[in-house]
């Protein structure tokens, strides 16, 4: 049971440690996403950080400047109120193209891609330049709006990770202690047996 518990703790910590947050600056220094090409694993988070009024919309390669026909995400126009961050969790490693739906921004090259494969961002951008307009979904979906960056909570996340590591360490120490106690317990039987034999042998000599 102790080994099973340790394995569960280890796998949980490993999964948490392996997830990465990829920060993308939106509209910083012009009509662009920086970086515009992201390599992300399943479980990773893409955090779009809005510096000026823009959107981010998931798209299909063959339909630039238009929302993806299935799945996807849409941030809405940001920043808005206190919200200036939009985070999307990656569920698989399929390529995802995205663009800004503000008028003419997509056509001007404000596009990007997650997990680029054979279809390239350059080809998507070239096709986007030839479109007449951009469109967007009716409502926000597919991500989480926030007023704080994950870097703002990195301390608490680190604490959580550290606490988890401490818990794992404590569990290991407890398991080690239990193992030591168990070892003593296992020795108790043979020791008791030897003691009994010694007493019996002494009694026989007394006779």
UniProtKB/TrEMBL annotation:
Residues 142-169 have a biased composition (Low complexity). Gene3D superfamilies: Cupredoxins - blue copper proteins (2.60.40.420). It comes from the Eukaryota. Residues 128-169 are annotated as: Disordered. Keywords: Signal. The keyword Signal applies. Coiled coil: none annotated. InterPro entries: Cupredoxin, Ser-rich/MCO-related. This is Extracellular serine-rich. The keyword Lipid biosynthesis does not apply.
